[in-house]
UniProtKB/TrEMBL annotation:
This is acetylcholinesterase. The active site is at 215 (acyl-ester intermediate), 346 (charge relay system), 477 (charge relay system). GO terms for biological process: acetylcholine catabolic process; choline metabolic process. It holds the Pfam family COesterase. Belongs to the type-B carboxylesterase/lipase family. Keywords: Disulfide bond, Hydrolase, Neurotransmitter degradation, Serine esterase, Signal. InterPro entries: AB_hydrolase_fold, AChE-related_enzymes, CarbesteraseB, Cholinesterase. It catalyses: acetylcholine + H2O = choline + acetate + H(+). Its EC number is 3.1.1.7. The keyword Plastid does not apply. One of its GO terms (molecular function) is acetylcholinesterase activity. Residues 27-537 form the Carboxylesterase type B domain. Residues 1-21 form the signal peptide.
Length: 603
């Protein structure tokens, strides 16, 4: 009945000219675009899909900085979702919703575009979504990111931007090369500049632009804090489970040059040529061949959760300097309000992909809760799983024993040891690759943003009934997004009918928190600003704000402190040794590890 009514309203809109008249026609600086009407219940949302902001990055423009879109003649039909840039498809679990949900339906090099949703009424607040995917995957047009419900529910303008991925966005052959790295970040910057200059045509306020993104999207947004050219393009940011400080988020130029040369070799472009000749050779290869060569590098040369083509931490087109030097000198945009946070089980998602042969095998062809999918690992499988990450710690036996002690839960009873070992690997993966560095960035921002600006921290603990993965995997990486975009309201049939009402209310509450922050800089009166002295995180679960709220102090404090000490140790090791093998250590250090961990916790 609801569907029939919506169709009737849409028909009336068309009859009265809203669908085909000025309601969907916009006169931009570069030309005219005509959008479409999407009905949300009985409310029209004006959608402008696949709006170009840059010229097609092909031919000589492949691997080059993006060029603004040139003016066009006539009307441009903005009625089809933005095409994905070339990306790596998730083929690990065919036809499994938990994997397929991240795969776009199409791809093209002609992808410098965006989707825009405009509610019928708005105060001009703009929320710009930057998708994640490890810089190798993603699209602004995934169903998960459909902005119509957020736009209609909160009367906010929603924009999803696109950017080049993999080698197309991050190939590097030297600072002076025409492929100088960080093109994907420059794409984002150009898109943000386009929004700043054009959003008034969509009734948006250029002074009320908030960026929000997840994983690599959040890492990208935080990168813009260190980019001089991005400073005046937004005023608030929401970082969901990602930071430019994360291990996987950047690489140094020398390593990226090595990977780029490996790509050239795989494409039969001789590395004996000059750098520019190599770039031109790769430019001449079919896009799909370049994509497949990049995927081969990921599959054969990279560590777990190390992505082949990512931002470089030093350049002279985006960062205009060295990211880490800027961090030390506190040289970043401080005139900013921030929400930053993580999910409870950030690490579990990655285990079936990277540790399949160490006890984390997942069979998507059988029920998720089948005993075969419980990943109850043995002590030897736990140690083997941890060894997969040992190269991150320069194969140090000291570090290995510290992590075995902390995450191995040696005090666990025999009856639940397998579960605790499994959860220990999940916790380590989440802490090391996501949570601790997100908190570290939150600390940095909280201590340095301008006096009238605030930082807010959250801790997400609500599991979705639509989550198709085994329940032991918990509140996984990426599984807060559906609530941010109102999916329980837009696709109710994929949720458990017994919890649907509660999940819809929860989604409405999350959307309101995000919108109120974008609108005023304050998400809720009950959510205090984050301070490094107390480190209070606002817990986002089903009771927010129905029966109250809960604050959690010092999320992951002890383990993050341990990992920080580990990072310092490895950094010192890098300075004093030239090899990547084990560092000889007195055996007494090994026996002192329990005391070391205890002392770190007590400090």
């Amino acid at each position: 009945m609801r569907s029939s009514f919506c169709d009737f309203v849409a028909l009336l809109a068309l009859c009265f000219g809203l669908g085909s008249g000025e309601g969907t026609l916009k006169h931009l600086k570069n030309g005219k675009i005509r959008g479409i009407i999407q009905m949300v219940d009985d409310q029209p949302v004006y959608a402008y899909l696949g709006v170009p902001y840059g010229e097609m990055p092909t031919g000589d423009r492949r691997f080059a900085p993006p060029q603004p879109k040139k003016p066009w003649v006539g009307e441009l039909a903005a009625d089809k979702p933005a095409t994905a840039c070339y990306f790596t498809k998730d083929n690990a679990f065919p036809n499994f919703p938990g994997a397929e949900m991240w795969n776009a339906q199409n791809e093209s090099e002609d992808c410098l575009n965006m989707n825009i949703w405009v509610p019928e009424e708005s105060d001009g607040t703009v929320m710009v979504w930057v998708y994640g995917g490890g810089y190798f995957s993603g699209s602004p047009s995934l169903d998960l990111y459909d902005g119509r419900m957020l736009a209609a529910s909160m009367n906010v303008i929603v924009v999803n931007i696109n950017y080049r991925l993999g080698p197309f966005g991050f190939l590097y052959f030297g600072h002076g090369s025409s492929a100088a790295g960080n093109m994907g970040l420059q794409d984002q910057q150009l898109a943000l500049r386009w929004i700043k200059e054009n959003i008034h045509h969509f009734e948006g306020n250029e002074k009320k632009i908030t960026l929000f993104g997840e994983s690599a999207g959040a890492a990208s947004i935080s990168a813009h804090l260190f980019a001089p050219g991005s400073k005046n393009l937004f005023s608030r940011i929401i970082l969901q489970s990602g930071s430019i400080l994360n291990q996987w988020a950047t690489s140094n130029p020398n390593e990226m040059l090595r990977r780029s040369r490996s790509l050239a070799t795989r494409l039969n472009c001789s590395i004996d040529l000059t750098q520019e000749e190599i770039v031109n050779c790769i430019r001449g290869k079919p896009a799909i061949a370049v994509q497949h060569a990049a995927e081969a590098i990921t599959n054969t040369e990279m560590l777990p959760l190390q992505f082949a083509f990512v931002p470089i931490d030093e350049d002279y087109r985006f960062f205009y300097g060295n990211l880490h030097r800027k961090l030390r000198q506190l040289d970043f945009n401080k005139d900013i309000d921030v929400i930053v946070g993580t999910n409870k089980d950030e690490g579990s998602y990655w285990l079936p992909y990277y540790l399949d042969e160490s006890g984390f095998h997942f069979d998507h062809r059988i029920p998720a809760e089948d005993p075969a999918n419980r990943a109850l690992i043995s002590r030897s499988q736990f140690e083997r799983s941890l060894n997969h990450f040992s190269a991150y710690f320069r194969n140090s036996s000291l570090v290995r024993h510290a992590l075995l002690h902390e995450y191995g839960d040696t005090a666990a009873s025999v009856s639940d040891l397998s579960k605790r070992l499994r959860d220990g690997i999940s916790a380590f993966t989440g802490d090391f690759f996501f949570t601790c560095d997100v908190i570290r960035l939150g600390d940095l921002l909280a201590e340095n943003v301008n006096e009238k600006r605030n930082v807010y921290m959250y801790y997400f603990t609500q599991r979705s009934s639509a989550n198709p993965w085994p329940k032991w995997m918990g509140i996984m990486h990426g599984y807060e997004i559906e609530y941010v975009f109102g999916m329980p309201l837009r696709r109710p049939k994929v949720y458990d009918s017994t919890t649907l009402g509660a999940e819809q209310r929860f989604s409405e509450n999350i959307m309101k928190l995000w919108f109120d922050f974008a609108n005023t800089g304050n998400p809720a009166s009950t959510w205090p600003p984050y301070k490094t002295s107390t480190k209070l995180a606002y817990v986002l679960d089903s009771v927010v704000p129905v029966t109250g709220h809960r604050l959690e102090s010092h999320v992951r404090r002890d383990r993050c402190r341990l990992l920080q000490e580990v990072a310092k140790y490895v950094d010192e090791d890098c300075k004093t040794t030239s090899n990547s093998g084990n560092v000889p250590l007195p055996i007494s250090w090994i026996w002192l590890l329990p005391v070391l961990v205890y002392l770190i916790r007590r400090v």
